[in-house]
Design a protein that fits this description.
This protein has 286 residues and is mainly alpha-helical. It has a single domain, classed as Hypothetical protein, domain 2 (Endonuclease III, domain 1), CATH 1.10.340.30. 47% of the residues lie in helices and 4% in strands. A three-stranded antiparallel beta sheet has the order 1-2-3, with no helix packed on it. A hairpin with a 2-residue loop joins strand 2 and strand 3 (37-41). Helix 5 runs antiparallel to helix 12 and helix 11 crosses helix 12 (203-212). The radius of gyration is 18 Å and the shape is globular. The protein starts with 9 loop residues before the first helix and ends in an 18-residue tail after the last helix.
Length: 286
Amino acid sequence: MDTPQVGLAIYSTLESGQTFSWYRGKSGCYHSVVGGEEVLACPGRVPDWDDAYEIFRLGDNLKEIYSKIDKDGFIHRAILSLEGMRVIKSDPWETTVSFMASVHNTVREIRSSILRMRMAIGAPVKTNYSDDLGFELRAFPTPSQLSSLGEAELLAFGLGFRAKNILNFAKEVQKGDFDPYAISKMGYDRAKQYLMEIKGIGPKVADCVLLFAGGYMQAFPVDVWIRKVVGKVYLHDDDPDEKKVAKFGGFYFYPYAGYAQEYIYAYSRGIRASQPGQQQGLRGPP
C-alpha cells in the first residue's frame, strides 16, 4: 500500500467534529482561545504557540498509527484522503460542556450555541486578530460563570433541552463535586463510568470527552453516523446495536481505535485533508 505523508492537516483536524471552539476567519485561519489568549491555526503551517504541541498531539507518530489501523480498503482510502488529520486534546471542562450540547444536535447549531454562550458571559482575552475573525472572541465560560446563570438564560443560547443538564453539571463542578480534569488519571473504564454519573452524559458523549480531552485512544465514540457506516461496511448490518459497534471498533482498531473512528467519520462525511488550494502543514514530527 502507498505510504501517506504525515504532518498536520489543520482543515480536517478542526472540521471533523472533534471540537466546536475553533472559528475560521476571512484568511482561512482558525481562531480559538487558549490560556486566556486568542491563538491561530492556519492551513499550511504547524502552529508553534504555547500548548499547540499538546493540543494538536504533534507527538503522535502518524506513520505508526496508520500502520496499526490500516487493515482494509475502506480505512486505507480514508487515510489517503485525510493524511495529516490528528486527534486533538482539548480542555476537559470545555469539551464536556460542548459535547453535552451536541446530543441530538447539528454541528452548526452546536457551534452557534457555544459561540453565543462565550460571547455573552466569557471573559475578554488578549487578541490581535479581530479584523480577520470579524469580532473579538471571548474565553469559554468558567464553571462559576455558567453556574451563575438561570436555565432560561441558557435556553436563550439555543441549548434547548440540554440546558438543564449543562447547568446542573456546571454547578457540580463549581461546588467541587465533580472534577473533569481528573479523568485523564483514572484509566479508561473508571473515567467513563465517572462521566456517565452526570445526567446528560451517555456512552457516546463520555467517549468523545475521553478521546478528545482525556487522550484515551481506545475510545470509539458511536453516534448515529458511525453506527450506520460501521454497520454497513464492517458488520453487514443496517441496524447494529451501539454496544456492538463500539466493541468492534475498540477491538479491530486497537490500540488506536479513536484515530480510526475519526478517519471513518470524516471520510464518510466527505471531509478531506484540506480545502482545494490549501496545503497542509508538514513541519510536524513523522
